[in-house]
Each structure stands twice: as C-alpha cells, then as structure tokens.
Amino acid sequence: MYVGLTNEGINIVMDPYLHTLIALGFIVGSFCLGKFLAVRESFTAAEIDDIVDALLSKLEADGYLYTTTDKDGDKELVPVSTVVAKALSDIR
Asked: In this structure, is the dihedral angle defined by the CA atoms of residues 70, 74, 78 and 79, taken in order, positive or negative?
C-alpha cells in the first residue's frame, strides 16, 4: 500500500487486500448491529399479527391485492386469476 503526502492531502492507493479488509469490516459490523437490534426490538406474535393485518389492509385499500374473510375472521388472499376471471365475466 502506498501512502503519500501531496498538496491535495493524503493519497492512499487502494489495493485488493485493503479493499477486502474494509468491506469485511463493514459486513461484520452490519451483522453485529443487526444482531444487537434484533435482540433489543424483538416482536411478539401478537405484534406481528397486528403488523401483517395492517399491511394487508393497506394493500387492499390501495387496490394492490384482494382478500376475503373466512368464518374464523382470518383474511385469505384471493388469487389474481380469480379476480381477473370475475372482471372478464362481469364485462361480458
């Protein structure tokens, strides 16, 4: 690795080994940060159900997917082929 002082500042030539060490450092750091945050902010099953329900409701309200509610009150996704077939039969 060449480190030289020029008028513009310090000039460091990036060789493959230095690049690999820097990238590996960021990868390990990101992994450790993710592990730390996952332990701190773990979700319960009820919270995950609320998040999924809110997401499905938002996507359905925006028209990105279609759902039906079964007898237990759970939402089920409707296949796109069913929606398209119903729309085509309504047009005819």
From this structure: negative
